[in-house]
Specification:
This protein is an alpha+beta fold and about 600 residues long. Helix content is about 45%, strand content about 20%. Strands 13, 14, 15, 16, 17, 18 and 19 form a 7-stranded mixed sheet that branches. Helix 4 packs across helix 12. The radius of gyration is 30 Å and the shape is globular.
């Protein structure tokens, strides 16, 4: 059901015909943008409450004043409405909703089960490979730290299969005693399986039982006068005790997440500590997007479904503030997870200490964020003053060009707002059809493509457009905007100063013969340097990726008889060009479709290049 009006929104008529069933509602402004999404057990009652000025808050009144239409989707239950609301908020990120910014998939530690000598590695994405998954970990860094610890205690291989299958002698990991050399037969399957089983027990939180088993094995080895093996078990036990003391949570045996929230001055911070099998895997910081002061309980209420409804949910969530709809959240999360999920706002003992620690971390992170935000805002104020802008800029974009001797040209576009870099809005452009090394044409093409999409409504317009370059680049950008009939964007060229020293940049404006004079030490110049350096970094990264892809394709394309499918198979089997270059003729012949003569040609191509 939807209600739209070309000029005015007839609230009374809309509410008169609105259903009382559960569902979600979307509030749209005059431009058709969704500014708020909510869910309700009774749509009529909930939506009506926004238009009762006696009970509506100032924030609600401000939002309602912008409503030009409301779209409604009816669901069977309130639980279904909650799921749909979360999906829609993630998709549209409405201005007046509490929106979770960081929603990427989280890493796991993966133990394969399809090989005689299983591999232990970091995994992110779909769990479609046969084996065991442990986690999730709050970051790739936390997962790698656990892998590094495990490698020191139980040397299960962590190398890629493409490297493992093509080794002819032990690698450096074997030399430093962090691998037992299964690739070249230096350990038997039974002994390797013992290390694998110990690794699984550790990751499943059975550290105490594992130590007991290792003690028993140490004593057996000592009784058999195998003192070298007994010493090995002794060292493993000592290392395990250190790790368990550092990472295991006293009194916890299950899967628990601890969620603490802090708010101040229109900024919110949510800190999540991850505990799996009684082991503390680390913590993750979130700064949800909010447009006003919110009670922490409302932020926790919005955070939990947005974060957990498409992820693996632990059996318990310990929270610093009780969410408003706790019973509904537990019901929906339990249904999604297919096991009971409890939300605990009131805890005691060791759990209270953990919650207090999470709260202290949230407060500390919030203060750091506020400090950064205030610093960036001050730089925006300085930028406004230095460039003579009538209004405080909200959005900045900066373009840079990267190439090597004119080849594989790439343009980068980075975006800043008053909170800093907006990395989700970054874009890169592969430049085609221009004369080699023509930076002016590259800038013109990139800006034309970028702002053509802006006219199609794909993104917001910047208040200031920075160009890494001088008068020529500024002119090229000006021509691109003129062709699109865009004249409300300020263009500023950032020309490198003498000897390319930071702080000596010259700012070029299209209609001014002389560069803009900047107040020495102005913080606005630091903001310009920041966005210019970020555009440069992003352009170089994009150029290297494009150049590497072209190099990979061009080398293999020079081999007669090696078609696209076989090239792709080779790259996949050996993990890239480096793996192919290390492979011998026999290993290459083992790939389906690669004959011995073709394998020799592949081998000779790489080794002739090395000789050259």
């Amino acid at each position: 059901m939807s209600e739209n009006s070309e000029n005015t929104f007839d609230v009374k008529t809309f509410l008169k015909h609105l259903t009382s069933r559960p569902g979600i509602y979307k509030m749209l402004n005059e431009q058709g943008e969704i500014i708020y999404i909510g869910k309700a057990k009774n749509l009529k009652n909930r939506v009506s409450s926004y238009f009762k000025t006696q009970t509506a808050s100032c924030k609600q009144q401000t939002m309602v004043a912008k409503v030009a239409a409301i779209e409604v989707t009816v669901t069977r239950t309130e639980g279904e409405a909650l799921l749909l609301e979360c999906q829609q908020i993630k998709r549209y990120k409405p201005r007046y909703n509490i929106c979770l910014r960081d929603d990427k998939s989280y890493p796991y530690i993966f133990l394969s089960s399809s090989q005689d000598f299983p591999q232990l590695t970091l995994h992110r994405g779909a769990k479609n490979k046969p084996g065991k998954y442990f986690g999730p970990y709050p970051s790739a860094g936390a997962a790698r730290e656990s892998l590094k610890l495990l490698q020191k205690i139980f040397p299960v291989r962590q190398c890629d299969d493409s490297i493992y299958n093509n080794r002819t002698r032990p690698c450096l990991q074997y030399q430093i005693e962090r691998c037992t050399g299964p690739c070249v037969g230096l350990i038997d399957k039974q002994s390797y399986a013992q290390d694998v089983n110990s690794t699984v027990m550790f990751l499943e939180g059975k550290g105490g039982l594992l130590i007991e088993q290792l003690i028993a094995k140490m004593e057996q080895s000592a009784e058999a006068h195998d003192y070298e093996q007994a010493a090995g078990f002794r060292d493993q036990i000592a290392k395990l005790r250190v790790v368990l003391e550092k990472h295991f949570v006293h009194g916890e045996r299950g899967d628990v997440d601890i969620i603490a929230c802090a708010t101040k001055l229109g900024v919110a911070c949510v800190q999540v500590f991850f505990i799996r099998h009684g082991q503390q895997l680390g913590n993750k910081i979130f700064f949800p997007k909010i447009t006003d002061e919110y009670d922490p309980a409302k932020i926790v209420q919005a955070f939990i479904p947005q974060y957990y409804l498409d992820k693996q949910v632990p059996h318990e969530l310990i929270v610093s503030h009780e969410p408003e709809e706790m019973e509904l959240l537990m019901e929906v999360l339990s249904r999604q997870a297919k096991h009971s999920v409890n939300i605990s706002p009131n805890v005691r003992g060791e759990r209270l200490k953990w919650l207090q620690m999470a709260g202290a971390n949230a407060e500390n992170s919030l203060l750091g964020k506020l400090s950064d935000k205030q610093g960036i805002y001050a730089r925006f104020l300085s930028l406004q003053e230095e460039l003579g802008c009538k209004e405080l800029p909200k959005r900045l974009e900066c373009f840079d060009i990267s190439h090597m001797q004119g080849d594989q040209t790439v343009a980068s576009c980075v975006v800043f707002d008053r909170e800093g870099p907006v990395k989700s809005a970054y874009r890169r452009f592969n430049i085609e059809g221009i004369k080699s090394g023509d930076d002016y044409a590259a800038i013109n093409q990139a800006i034309f493509r970028r702002f053509k999409r802006l006219k199609q409504g794909e993104h917001e317009a910047p208040d200031i457009l920075f160009i890494d370059g001088g008068k020529g680049q500024v002119k090229a950008a000006q021509m691109a905007l003129a062709e699109l009939d865009i004249n409300n964007v300020m263009i500023v060229g950032v020309s490198k100063g003498p000897d390319r020293k930071a702080g000596m940049e010259k700012l070029i404006l299209p209609e001014q013969a002389q560069p803009v004079k900047i107040t020495p030490g102005a913080s606005g110049l630091l903001l310009i340097q920041h966005i210019r350096d970020e555009a440069h970094r992003f352009a170089i990264t994009a150029h290297r990726q494009r150049r590497g892809k072209a190099k990979r394709q061009s080398i293999l394309e020079n081999i007669a008889g090696l078609g696209p499918k076989r090239r792709q198979l080779l790259l996949k089997q050996f993990g890239g060009l480096q793996g192919i270059s290390r492979a011998g003729v026999d290993a290459l012949c083992g790939i389906d479709g690669i004959s011995r003569p073709l394998a020799k040609r592949i081998y000779e191509l790489f080794h002739h290049q090395d000789d050259a």
